[in-house]
Amino acid sequence: MSFQIALNFEDGVTRFIEAAGHETVADAAYRQGINIPLDCRDGACGTCKCQAESGRYDLGDNFIEDALSEDEIAQGYVLTCQMRAESDCVVRIPASSQVCKTAQASFDATISRVRQLSQSTIALSVKGESLARLAFLPGQYVNLQVPGSDQSRAYSFSSLQKDGEVSFLIRNVPGGLMSSFLTEMAKAGDGMTLAGPLGSFYLRSIQRPLLLLAGGTGLAPFTAMLERIAEQGSDHPVHLIYGVTNDFDLVELDRLQDFAARIPNFTFAACVADPQCEYPRKGYVTQHIEAGHLNEGDVDVYLCGPPPMVEAVSLHLREQGITPANFYFEKFAAAA
Fold first, then answer.
1. What architecture does CATH give domain 210-331?
2. CA–CA distance, 215 with 139 (Å, rounded to integer)
């Protein structure tokens, strides 16, 4: 039996390898042309020390404490020259992809569908044979090249890959290069190039309640995460608060309702900041974070939104005297 190992490099690049149950992660990586840090191969030097962020694995027993201590083991550190996967795993590599002689992958695809969900949001789906080989962690992003230019824009996947197709939620920026292409020229069959996957914002193994905070098109990575949670289930509560500026910015509410029906532990709330809005729940995301959502700090918080939202949530948590077990965030700003 073989397992899929996601190697996350410190420059944001993620590469996936297949590791047979009998081989170490280091051997599997080298077999597939990725030179992760390695020296002695005997569990003595600690050069190959990495952090396993999810999955089950055998640490091996041929290493010394100077290379890997009990405290480090408790924090999820492993020696890849000894580690053998017992499930799919995510391993954080403390080196850049260039140092490890690998790089982000590139994929050719064509537009399968473009929809204007609102005056502020565009849904884009692309499809291609090469995308059937595209693997990514829910929450990650790719760089999409704008057709007819040499420029790219970064967008989070809003869906998992299925039958060679992936989707994105894209903010419609007046005068924006990608926005102009999608609203004025794009049609089914047009070619697009994707480069990635990238990013350290992705769904980790669910060990405690989750609080997901989305601002505008920052909803995209969470719908991909929720697809994965719907597949695998969760023993812990998952609550999403989705905030926008205007009524017309609210999109994909039907999809969130569908997730609520499919995932027993999932709930969500949407809110609109404009005090003159028609939507019944008004205000900012921070105004709708309840004490129960924070679980006295035993919670993993995921946030994707513009920089002011990240700062506001960080301030709110400090004012509440709450330090989450983990706080993962992705800031984004629109490109002109």
1. 3-Layer(aba) Sandwich (3.40)
2. 14
